[in-house]
Amino acid sequence: MSESRKILMVSSEAVPYAKTGGLADMVSALALHLRESGDDVRIVIPRYYSIDKSKLEKINGPLGVPTGTDEKWTAVYKDMLKGKVPIYFIDYDQLYGRAGIYGPSGSESFEDNAERFNLLSRASFQLCRMLGWYPDVMHCHDWSAGLIPIYLNTTEFAGDFSQTASVFTIHNIGYQGVFPAEETIHTGLVETAAMLHKDNMNFLKCAIDQSHVITTVSPTYAKEIQTEQYGEGLEHLLDYRKYDLYGILNGVDYNDWNPETDPFIAPDNYSKEDMANKKKLKALLQEEAGLEVTDKKPLIGIVSRLADQKGFRELCEPFYGCLASLCRYIDLQFVILGTGEKWCEEELSRLNSTLPNLHAWTEFDNRKAHLIEAGSDFFLMPSRYEPCGLNQLYSLKYGTLPIVRMTGGLADTVENYNQQTGNGTGFTFYDLTPEAIYNVVGWAVWAWYNKKDHIEKMRQKAMSRDFSWNEPVKEYRKVYDIAMTKRRS
Ligand code: ADP
């Protein structure tokens, strides 16, 4: 294989343009690191309403995109991600010109999402034609780019894309892109069987069925999704394709997430050699959250989508969750930043007004996310499942010990505390119950009060762990080569 590959990333999100979760971080960071390794990598995403087109360059067009029902005339805009990676925006107001990426809120979806994201797939091919640039690999991320592999195997099998392989990454199997079977009409394909699952159109199932290579974002999650407990109904298909399935842990972009250089916490940056400013940031966080400003109590942070997946039922469902008990019976403080399911936002707002040692912001705020990573003592992630999880990786780098349930990427990255030796980088537990969360948080707080030397030792170890993109990029390049060999044979 040649040393430089042409890779087109197709995604519904990419930082800093559009983000609801870790997918956006991963797509941009992987692209930038592939570029550094010498690959010609480009990204394509929709031009949502929130992306200001006056800041982008309009490129020659319009772009005609055939769909199953008509031909749509889209505009194309371009920017250079961090001045290094071309990113193209498919602009089609009727489908993308509204607030929200998948729906008007975190818990609602747009009714025409099948049409919206079919357009993204088909426009990606037309974009390449317009550029006269044909990728070796189309790297498709999550269900919203999930129809590309079937197009490569059907309409695009011969001709311009005959040498183009598909790599599909599952970032979260809980979101599959399921629509009534009639929605296959948008594709114009007659071969609908691969698109269907349990009588519905299913983008994710189609991608797993049709891709040359499938990846997911941690080795443990790759195994978990082959089981009934985690496979969300696709476990048999994944088991069938297990020899084409690779678990590659996401890296962290330490240009953005590093306490030594993080502009969001400047001028109070800190390092593992000099942690003094971490205390200042804790005080700042307490002040902004309206909590008592003190270093005599441990502060526990959460930054998360407010979703069942993240363990929020066990944390704060009325009459069930343990958050109120944790705040009432353990001498600690909590800050929570998150948006998502409405019941959860409402419950957190209610707890906010009744518990003086808790503050919850129900908003999306990148600066606060950085401040919570830096200013907290612990970072809690009681996830039901966690494909990779980025926040625990950020926490490790910021010396904010993660408290995590042993699943997916959390199990691959956090080493449990050993009370005898003081070894470990965090606190882990298995059962997803309010009692188990209560106990593990209690254990961490106990160590914070009684084993200060262990906490310091763990912080040092956590901050020394390297979860940069160096290794994952090498693995993705290998996977691209495997996919290209498959396509070309
Ligand atoms: P997921 O992709 O499942 O949501 P990850 O841990 O992989 O979870 O990534 C979540 C990303 O989104 C992190 O970068 C996190 O800091 C960010 N994030 C989540 N909620 C918020 C919020 N309310 N404000 C700012 N950043 C947030």
UniProtKB/TrEMBL annotation:
Which keywords does this Swiss-Prot/TrEMBL entry list? Glycogen biosynthesis, Glycosyltransferase, Transferase
What region holds the Starch synthase catalytic domain? Answer: 6-239
Reactions listed under catalytic activity: [(1->4)-alpha-D-glucosyl](n) + ADP-alpha-D-glucose = [(1->4)-alpha-D-glucosyl](n+1) + ADP + H(+)
Q: Which domain of life is it from?
A: Bacteria
Asked if the record carries the keyword Cell wall biogenesis/degradation, the reply is no
Task: Name the Gene Ontology molecular function terms of this record.
Answer: alpha-1,4-glucan glucosyltransferase (ADP-glucose donor) activity; alpha-1,4-glucan glucosyltransferase (UDP-glucose donor) activity
Kindly list the biological process annotations in GO that this record carries.
glycogen biosynthetic process
Provide the binding site for ADP-alpha-D-glucose: K19
Q: Which Pfam families match?
A: Glyco_transf_5, Glycos_transf_1
Q: Which GO CC terms are listed, alphabetically?
A: cytosol
Q: Does the keyword Metal-binding apply?
A: no
EC assignment: the record states 2.4.1.21
User: Which SUPFAM superfamilies does this chain map to?
Assistant: UDP-Glycosyltransferase/glycogen phosphorylase
- Domain Glycosyl transferase family per the UniProt entry, residue ranges: 292-430
Pathway it acts in? Answer: Glycan biosynthesis; glycogen biosynthesis
What family is this? Belongs to the glycosyltransferase 1 family. Bacterial/plant glycogen synthase subfamily.
The function of this protein is: Synthesizes alpha-1,4-glucan chains using ADP-glucose.
- Name the UniProt record assigns to this protein: Glycogen synthase
- The species this protein belongs to is Spirochaeta isovalerica
